[in-house]
Amino acid sequence: MSDSAIRPEDLVLLLGARPRRGVRAWLYRGIAKAVRDGRLPPGLRLPSSRAVAAALGVARGPVSEALELLAAEGYVITRDRSGSRVAPRAESVRAERPEVALRPPPSPGTPDPALFPWASWLRSMRIGSARLRPDDLGYGDPRGLPALRERVAELLRLTRGAVVAPDQVVIISGVAQGLTLLATVLRRRGAGPIGLEDPGSPGARDSLRSLGADVVPVPADGDGLDIDRRVGEPGAVLVTPAHQYPLGVPLSPDRRRRLLDWAAAVDRLVIEDDYDADLRYDGLPIGVLQAMAPDRVALLGSVSKVLAPGMRLGWLVPPPHLYDELVAAKRNADLGTSVFDQAALAEFIGSGEYQRQVRRLRQVYGERRAALVGGLRERFDVSPAGFSAGLHVLVRLPDHDAEQRALAYLAERNVAAHALSDCFFADGDPGLVLGTARIPAPDLIPALPD
């Protein structure tokens, strides 16, 4: 160990001006920081507490206490006769690793944050929090607050035609968690692979694969998912019947019946992702598939499109035979969703603010979509695929080179877009899936080839 030492006056100079109060804390923080950043190297002998106290013009007690705390935390080593030295420091070894993007790229389905109803939401937070009881602040019912489950059940019955009671609802931290819980329970039951729409959501496909789930394609076209063209025999199928992603079409009545007939005949589960059905601009939203077969369909939904994805609040309405297992899986996953957020959402829905927000968004997003579609028709004499709903449109392109050029142009301008080809399990058709919530038509039109 080095025999070098630092004089009391040099240590005081290194630490800077002494405060009038809090000498012990100041001395502790200053020496600890100097050790961490290398200004006091390992093995350096420190002056005695008596010498430091004399140099600072303070009592010896606070200095001794600071050195004892530094020794307890491993910054210095104190021996009876040799005094204190800076402790040896383990070399920091930082493994080389690739850069990881912590924030995902812009998604075509992301709402405009400028439309978030801050005033009414903050009011709902105040009122909802005031209604919480002391017992609500502990580890509560993993199904969620009773008040929110009542509000969600009522909302789903009135606006989506669902067959649901409050004791059938599980409050979840977004649809992604709902998929995780369902995949976990299905895997434990040995249900087999999960069928996904092809084309479909790349996010859902990647999420399920990351959980170790076996996923298989089920072709989708202008009438939605076609269960008769499935690959193999999946144990469950994930479907977006109200507004297929990315094709933008509803599941046709005939396809709806055939999907439910298949599920009943072979005792399989249909997972309904009702992700943006509230946002239809040319008529009433299409009702949920769950209403036709509540014993075969697990209904998923969230506030991500109407409010904000960062809120991480949603709901799961499973068939009765899976309910207890899913509640147990939710408890094991996170012990329940934040009661303050749940209380706020219960008040927000109960006061009518949720439906007011839906009406506002239908008007604003409907106008923005119409402007974008009009610009595409004027420039290219084409209409995007799908019907007037949701937060995305699909524009088909002549080839994959055009797709890549358009994506590069839009990425430079931070415009949310997906390649249609990425939505397929294998090689797929070229095109762009464009977000309509924030995209201005003048930024989009030049990106598309003539």
Oligomer: single chain
Strand content: 5-15%
Helix content: 40-55%
Largest sheet, described in full?
8 strands, mixed
Number of domains: 3
**Secondary-structure element sequence?**
HHHHEEHHEHEHEEEHEEEHHHEHEEH
Low confidence ranges:
none
CATH fold name of the largest domain: Aspartate Aminotransferase, domain 2
Distance between the termini: 75 Å
Q: Given the helix and strand composition, which structural class is it? A: alpha/beta
So what's the CATH class of the largest domain? Answer: Alpha Beta
Summed up, the helix count is 14
In the CATH classification, which architecture of the largest domain applies?
Answer: 3-Layer(aba) Sandwich
How do the strands line up in the largest sheet?
Answer: 3-10-9-8-7-4-5-6
SSE blueprint and pairings:
Elements: H1 8-15, H2 23-36, H3 49-56, H4 60-72, E1 76-79, E2 83-86, H5 118-130, H6 146-160, E3 170-172, H7 175-189, E4 194-198, H8 202-210, E5 215-221, E6 224-225, E7 236-239, H9 253-266, E8 269-273, E9 297-302, E10 314-317, H10 320-334, H11 339-350, H12 353-380, E11 392-396, H13 400-412, E12 417-419, E13 431-435, H14 441-444
Parallel strand pairs: 4-5, 4-7, 7-8, 8-9
Antiparallel strand pairs: 1-2, 3-10, 5-6, 9-10, 11-13, 12-13
Helix pairs in contact: 1-3, 2-4, 3-4, 5-11, 6-11, 7-10
Structure described in brief:
This protein has 14 helices and 13 strands.
Entry keywords:
450 residues, alpha/beta, Arc Repressor Mutant, subunit A, Aspartate Aminotransferase, domain 2, Aspartate Aminotransferase, domain 1, eight-stranded mixed beta sheet, three-stranded antiparallel beta sheet, aminotransferase, transferase, PyrdxlP-dep_Trfase_major
